[in-house]
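Below: protein 1.
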Amino acid sequence: MKFLPGPGVGGHCLPIDPTYLSWEAKRRSGRHLHFIELANEVNLSMPRYVVERVGLVLNQQGKSTRSARLLVLGLGYKKNTSDVRESPAVQVVERLVDLGAVVHAADPHVLPDRAPDGVTLVKLDREQVAEADLILLLTDHDDFDYSVLRESGVPVLDTRHRLDSSDVPGVLYL
């Protein structure tokens, strides 16, 4: 199974199970599982890192995060699901909202009552893309029409390595 960097891990088990495994190993053997602890630390820090990258990309455009209009693609913790439990995407958008960004999110799987406070759910279309200062791909649902990003000229920060730069010029990766 191929693993690529992403905005973090989520769901009901992945963020919790490594911590339990490490704790149980320490309890039974008295030894730390440093690799698991380090991997867990990296995974848990990824939403903060994504927000930092958003700030850097906006700064390169001469804009700040405060009042920037961001179009987020995907809120679920994994593609093609509506599950937002422990979702790194939700953590990212909550941080961005706290920094004063205007966040619109497209996610055909997530119901409006499951969207984070301060986030407006929208459909992914050319109008939403054109109004954005930055597009942030956090959950790469298969049913997104990625072709609307092709000629927009709006920078795209792809945290899932879903997009090909030959299809979407100017795409940036984590």
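Below: protein 2.
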Amino acid sequence: MTSRGNEKKVIFRNSKDKEKFLSYLESAHDRYGAVIHVYCLMENHYHLLLETPRGNLSQILHHINGAYTTYFNIKRGRSGHLFQGRFKGILVERDAYGQELSRYIHLNPVRSGVVKDPSEYRWSSYRFYIGKQKEPRWLTTEWVLGYFGGRKHSGYRRYREFVEKNMTMKLESPLQEAIASTFLGSEGFIKKISRGYLENREIDKRNVPAVKLILTKGPSLGEIEEAVSKILGKDHVFYRKLCIHLSHRYSGMGLEEIGRHFGMKGSAISQSSRRFKWAIDDHNGVGRTIDKIKEELHVEC
């Protein structure tokens, strides 16, 4: 999950701020059972890869963000929100994406140009994953390092090689593959969540935003096409690409299901959606058109 500073403002002004934040990760582990695998603290946001065995994600994040906001405001004599809205949490298929996500998070300081080597950055968990420092008791490295030979010299070396081989290339975020900006996993994973938990209501949907999305359902593919046609027109050059992008982001359907509808492979759906987003990020006119279509579909950002 990711949480950013309000209006992208700085949330960590010095080392003491970062140390204080890490103390709240420790207390989240002790009090609420948070299993923290990976972290990275940047100037105006942070990334966490964590598990919530008790199904209490909202409680954990309320503790971390709330306690840190109180500390930050008292120290600076300010008031009000520090973080930007609700945290962005994505439900991830554990074994399929854990390695990739850990690498992506650990390379964040390199992508941002803060350091050239992730091992130079003090405020991520990377140094613990390569044996450069002994990990704190509240950080769990066993799961990810288990794919590389465990917590021993060979495991540390293999993990470092895994991370470093992508340092010189543009590493795409695994989160771009997320379905409806909420799920990261296979078709079977999503069905398992839906059938195994939702039908029996075993999860408190307030603590797993992805569950709420399944329960409330997104717009159908037909409804998306109808809305795009109404606002943009079927003959527009962006019509098909926009339908695919909105279907991927808001329908809540799996990649294979969306792919069948558009006559494409599931993997091509996420690629098309991502490329379209890149193409329109700096195009205000298209952005306003998309906002109108989202209003027509009654979907949020």
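The mean pLDDT is 82.
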